[in-house]
Amino acid sequence: MKILTAENIGFCFGVRKALETIHSLLRTGRKTYMFGQLVHNPGVIESLRTLGAEIVESLDRIPRDSKESFLVIRAHGIDPQKKEKLKRHFFEVVDTTCPIVGKLFSTVQRAKREGYRIVVFGKVDHPEMEALKGYVEDAVVSESPVKPDRKTAFASQTTMSISEYSTFLQQILQKYFEHVKEMKIFNTICEATAKREREVERLAKENNLVIVVGGKNSSNTAKLARIASRFTRSVQIESERELKKDFVNYDKIAVVAGTSTPKSDVEKVSNKLQILCQEGR
Ligand code: SF4
After folding, report:
1. Cβ of residue 101 lying under 6 Å from some atom of ligand 1
2. Which of 6, 190, 225, 248 has its CA 20 to 30 A from that of 208?
3. 266 Cβ partners below 8 Å, 6+ apart?
């Protein structure tokens, strides 16, 4: 059996920055909260909890000690009005919104000011899209084609698939082109995730099994598993404990991971696969 680990693994810079920030706040000894899960990875959240960090799920659940505590805003960003409200409750709100996500927000805001209707290819309930609605309240967020206005600007959630965004746009053009007078298309997909998408597609074509390591609630991890499944068998696991013995029946296996998966998790999966392979001989 040949096991190949993807080149693009480990945290992206946005996630790394958010984690470095929360670790440095925790080191101050002051109570530190995160607004929602800082990273869509259960192992990482668990280790932050062990260090004392806790999650604030919503504005209705402000902890009693908020006035003495830090609150960290995750890389996905936040509705600015919500952030202002949170600032009134906490000692300090530390915003780790990824600059690439911030750029998406300013892009759609500018297009809105220029009179475009905003259509965003994304998942309605994803935190990044919930935050975006705080910048452009009437933005339409959808994963399936929608009828544009005569003047429409398109953008994408930063972690969506490049190929799926392209299909989404083509379907809209095919169906509604005559209806449109003016259109702007922004490619707001993050290069860190696009790179992984290209790599997973190549690896899926060259291997019999692709193992995608990452949180089940991570949008970009699920996307990699979906892309791989178009070409070969793919499974998504959160840790090496989910590896099955029959995986050794595949002669070429690729191990890939989402941007919120620690490199060490990927290495553990690859190592355990090697062990299973040796045991199976
Ligand atoms: S995936 Fe891209 S946009 Fe999202 S946090 Fe990482 S670097 Fe930022």
Report:
1. yes
2. 190
3. 5, 6, 9, 10, 213, 255, 256, 257
Domain boundary among 141, 166, 189: 189
Q: Is 218 in the pocket of ligand 1 (CB under 6 A)?
A: no
Beta bridge partners of 177: none
- For residues 89 and 147, state if they share a domain: no
Tens digit of each residue's pLDDT, the chain (281 residues) = 899 999 999 999 999 999 999 999 999 999 999 999 999 999 999 999 999 999 999 999 999 999 999 999 999 999 999 999 999 999 999 999 999 999 999 999 999 999 999 999 999 999 999 999 999 999 999 999 999 999 999 999 999 999 999 999 999 999 999 989 999 999 999 999 999 999 999 999 999 999 999 999 888 899 999 999 999 999 999 999 999 888 888 999 999 999 999 999 999 999 999 998 888 66
Whether residue 166 sits in one domain with residue 210: no
C-alpha 16 to ligand 1 mean position (Å):
9
Indicate if ligand 1 lies below 6 Å from the C-beta of 13.
yes
Q: What residues act catalytically?
A: 128
Q: Among 166, 189, 212, which residue terminates a domain?
A: 189
Q: How far is the CA of 100 from the centre of ligand 1 (A)?
A: 6
Q: Is ipTM strictly over 0.95? A: yes
The boundaries of the domain holding residue 85 are 13-97
Which CATH number is 267's domain given?
A: 3.40.1010.20
Pair 182, 222 in one domain: no
* CATH number for position 53: 3.40.50.11270
Please report, as a single letter, which amino acid is at residue 6.
A
Q: Do 148 and 77 share a structural domain? A: no
Cα–Cα distance measured from residue 23 to residue 27, given in angstroms and rounded to the nearest whole number: 6
Q: How many domains is the chain partitioned into structurally?
A: 3
Supply the DSSP symbol for 27.
H
